Amino acid sequence: MVGQVRRPTVGPMSSPNAPTVQYIEDFFVYGANFLAIAPGVTANGGFQVQADSDFKLTKLGAVTDVAAAGQDDSTRIFPLATMQIVDTGSGQQLFSIPIPIGAIFGNGELPFILPVPRIFKARSNIAIAIANYDAAQTYNIRLAFIGNKIFTLGN
Q1: Which of 70, 87, 57 lies closest to 140, judged by CA?
Q2: What is the pTM of this model?
């Protein structure tokens, strides 16, 4: 996708005389794997947005398994785990409290679509904490952050 937007000169309003910024969007997925999260354990991880572009997050997908066991639609695992995501570039948490993964992540066939895309600046570190509150299961959780890289053309 190719687009352009006027860059505001001062404040949140764009001036009609502001310079135009052109950009290209390209499909991209960042992943984060959390393996062998035991009951009662909080695992920390995340990913870094690459330096070549900002990232527009539009969809969230997750796949969970127990001991890498095979699954089909009727045996799909829904983890009893919560998560918090922090954009360390802005210092903002994405949720007011840790949210159950099943409430905010879909699967590969039907990912969760964000009501408003989230822009992460180039070089931002995205910190993720997952807390397993299951009484017995140890989970492998693989997350997909689906969206677009935003390449700015000729500042």
Answers
A1: 70
A2: 0.84
